[in-house]
């Protein structure tokens, strides 16, 4: 794959998807789309009391992501490479975790209207790591509302990602064990992942790098 037009990096909270998306955008000289969780005014209240604002939180993200996807379709065709740290379909994954039955029915009606003709990625990079690793990274980056995330919720979210990508077949997929690599600070880790990514143009692939021995 010399120059894919649309790469998506995905994975649960704390796995490093935004960091990797930014580095890939720099390497490809491409446009970057970030999901902007910090812009969601309901986030802190959601982690304090999920049931009270789950629908408001989810609809904000849905509207935000749908708008970004429409902007992507209308973007400059002379700079075709784009990197995103979210897959549109993952919005439903969160909705199914957090909404009750009636809320989910309402959400799905809005989702179906907003996601017509959403562009499909040329490659999806799915980052995985154990919950204890995710919790450690969340703690280290120090985002205030994320400190309220409970391990049980993060485990359910991680399990949902595993199930989602087990059945995913809409684009070439690279599944990366991100537990023992540091592509944020270790350039060798990042370059090896980049080369693996560039070699993929179809199918499902796995990348399980081993930590460097000192």
From TrEMBL:
One GO molecular-function entry: deoxynucleoside kinase activity
InterPro entries: DCK/DGK, Deoxyribonucleoside_kinase, DNK_dom, P-loop_NTPase
Origin superkingdom: Bacteria
Sequence ranges assigned to domain Deoxynucleoside kinase in this UniProt record: 7-199
UniProt keyword annotation of Kinase present: yes
Any single GO CC term annotated in Swiss-Prot or TrEMBL for this entry: cytoplasm
SUPFAM superfamilies with a match to the protein in the record: P-loop containing nucleoside triphosphate hydrolases (SSF52540)
Keyword Kinase (UniProt): yes
Binding residues for ATP: 11-19, 137-141
Alphabetical UniProt keywords: ATP-binding, Kinase, Nucleotide-binding, Transferase
Active site positions: 85 (proton acceptor)
PANTHER family: DEOXYGUANOSINE KINASE (PTHR10513:SF46), DEOXYNUCLEOSIDE KINASE (PTHR10513)
Protein name stated in the entry: Deoxynucleoside kinase
Organism of origin: endosymbiont of Galathealinum brachiosum
